[in-house]
Structure formats: C-alpha cells, structure tokens
Amino acid sequence: MEQLMIELNPQTTQPVVQVKNLAKAYGSNVVLRDVSLSVAEGSVTAMIGPSGAGKSTVLRCMNLLEQPDSGEIVIDGHCINAGKKTSPKSLAALRRSAGMVFQHFNLFPHMTVLRNVSLPQERVLGCSREQANEKSMELLKRMGLADKADQYPSRCSGGQQQRIAIARALALGPRVMLFDEPTSALDPEVGVEVLEVMKELASTGMTMVVVTHEMAFAENVADELVVMADGGIIEKGHPGQILKDPQHERTRRFLRAVLER
Amino acid sequence: MNNLVDVAIEYGPTLLGGLKVSLTLTILSLALGLPIGLLFSFGVTAKNKAFRYISVFFVEVGRGAPALVLLQLMYYGLPNANLTLSSMASACLALTWTTAAYSAELIRGGMQSVPSGEIEGSHALGMSYRDCLRFVVIPQGLRIALPSLMGFAVLLFQATSLAYSVAVPELMSQAYSIGSSTFQYLPVFIVAGLLYAAISIPATWLSVGAERLLSRHL
C-alpha cells in the first residue's frame, strides 16, 4: 500500500532539487544573481567555475547554511522561500533530505568514528543506539572503513575522514547528497579514494550535486554540468558537450586554465 | 625548627580543622559557581537583552571587584539591606560570584574555540541547536577550558584565606588566632602556608593529568 502511494505521489516525478531565482549579496558585494537550477532524480550534477563564482554559495543555500536574500528552494517537496520566515520544523525537514559533505570534513573530533556516524541517526531520526550502530557499521564497511570504527577521526587519513563524513551523511537516508569540493583539501592520490566512493554512490542511483575542480569526474560521472562565473550560471548541459565545445567565452577561458596547466 | 615541630603537633588538629573549612568553602563555591558560570557564558552573548544585561553585569562586577570587597559587601553590607547572612554563607556567596564571573569567561573562550565547521556540520545533519550545544560545543568547549578552570580552582582555594576577614573559621583565621594568643606567628604561618601548598601543588599536577586524559583523541 505504501509502495502504491509513493508511485502515485506526483512529487516523485518532479526534480528532487529545484532552485528558483536565487540571489544573495553581502552588502554591495553580489555573490549570486538569479540562479535557477533543477536536479533530476538519480542524476549527478557537477558545478564548476572559477573561485568566487558562487558555486559553494549555491550549494550552501540549498540547505540554508547560507540564507539567500531572495528565491525559492525545493528539495524533495520541502519548500523554503527566502522572503518568508522559515519554521525550524521545515528547516529540519529540508536538511534531513539533503546530506552535505564539506571540503574540510567537519567530523566531531572528540567522538569515535562510529559515534560520529551513529549520533546524528539517534538525535535526528530517533534511532536506538543498536539500530544506529548497525546501520553505521554497514555504511563504514561499504566505505572500506569497518576497522576504523573505534578510532578517533584524527587517527584517520584525510581520505578516510572524508569517507567517514560521507557515511555520516548517508546514514540519515538523504534524497540528495551535496558535495562541496570534497577532494580539494586532499592530495591527489588520496582524493581518488573519495572519488571512487562517489562514483559507486552515483552508480546506485543517488542524486548528487557536486561542486568540484575534478574535471575527469565532471566529465565521466556527471550527467549535467553547470558552469558558474560571477554569481551566475553561464552555461549548463551535457558535460562532454560543454567540455568539447564551450559556447561561452568565460567558459573557454576557465577550461583553458584548468585543462592546460 | 623544634619550635615549628612543636607548633605543628600542638595546633595541628586546629589547623587541619581550618583546612577542612577552607576546602568546604572552595568546593561549595565551585559547585555553585561553575554551573552559574556556564549559564553566564551563554548569557554574555545571548540575543535576549534581559539575559545578556544581567549576565554582563554579574560577570563584569565579579571580575572587576576584588574578592575581598565582595566578601565584605556580603557580610557587612547586606545587613543594611535587611539581609543578614552567617559568615560562612556570605563568604560562600561572594566566592560563588567570583567563580561564576571568571569561569563564565573561561568557558566562553573554550566554546568559541570549537571550530565553526563542526557547528555547521551538525546543522547540515539536521541536528537541533540544543543538540549541537550538548554534543558538540559544550563537551569540547569545557575540555578546552578545563586546564584554566582547574588553575582557577587552585587560586580560589587560596582566595578562601580572605574569608578570615569575615570571621569564617578557615585555615588562615585559625592560624591568625593561634598566633595572636601564643605570639608564635612565624612557625604557625609557616605551617599554614605548607598546608595550603600541600593541597595546591598536587591539585596542579591533577589538572595536568586531567588535561592529558581528556585530549587522548588528539
């Protein structure tokens, strides 16, 4: 019966993430101007562009870590309007449906790896300690980190810490995963472990939005490429197409800088 | 030297009784002052104006006024406002105020040094503001503040000697009264000083050990 309800629910045919006319400025410094974006269920969207383009800000606006000045955000049917006051309840619902992975992992250093992954399940989903630990171990195994469960994060390498952070976000069963430059703080060799996990995640049909400078990942894994510059989206479409034949001069300049170094 | 040993033997029990009062005063002031300090540490940065102003008042006065002034105020001053407290109660109240004021700033400093990324992380996970404080900010902030809080506790223990001025029968006042009745001031104050040191120095070692224990994840 529940299955039937989900199938009949028109929301499942809608994009998982919709961003409409997002704008944000810090004083006179405009960081986002009229950004609109929609992410289809099960797709991977890569966002690239020069630093200061507003990629991370868009991502951080999606789960309200940054408050946009205007615009609308819909994730999995939870709608937030920048103009109106957001109730803590709808904010919690929105954040629960979006998992976030940060450049600097942001693990809790005073908790073991297992506690890091289990605590949010207990506090946010109301799981029991046993349920949470079982789920955490399952995810840590999937990330290849089962043997690290009782360690503290500082005993793990950067790549391991980032995979722990991914497990922590996945444990809450998000509808979409937001990645904010997940490999930028890692050296290239270690970054590969994280990219492998992300590829595996994409292949299981997880909806993902990835802000990244990893062009190979953007080209091979993403279904949609979004190029941002100066607070706006200047180009979006199929990654292969954009990388081969960029339409916009700014895109060409950026790609030259990234690919020909 | 003989004199010192004689004084220590003869008046030891009295002095130890005073030491017990000093320790009781320290523990009571810490037990009451630290939770209030934790409250004030949030108060001084709170959005709620009444809470903030009250906290800032108590923190600034508590740190700005010498403990001796607060002690005298509570014991000799409050009766003018029709509130008469026993010497022990007024000393306890004054030192609780001092403790709350200093610990509020030490705790606030500790909390502020918890990286903002971790707070953001907990928000992104959908954890409530309260849970973020309870599981992320307070445990780490207290850990960071602990060495300085333990250092403060040692200073507070020494500051209880000021309570002799409001007739609390603690170590200093016992030593003083023995001295004034026997004129053996030198040996009696040496013994009293040794007794203060006998508590203060191991307490400092303890704080180093506690610091190591609490940072084992680093």
From TrEMBL, chain B:
Tree of life domain: Bacteria
Cytoplasm keyword on record: no
This protein's name: Amino acid ABC transporter permease
Primary localization: membrane
Xref: PANTHER family: L-CYSTINE TRANSPORT SYSTEM PERMEASE PROTEIN TCYL, MEMBRANE COMPONENT OF AMINO ACID ABC TRANSPORTER
Molecular function as annotated in GO: transmembrane transporter activity
Entry GO terms, CC: ATP-binding cassette (ABC) transporter complex
Domain ABC transmembrane type-1 intervals: 19-207
Membrane protein topology class: Multi-pass membrane protein
Gene Ontology biological process terms in this record: amino acid transport
Short name of one Pfam family: BPD_transp_1
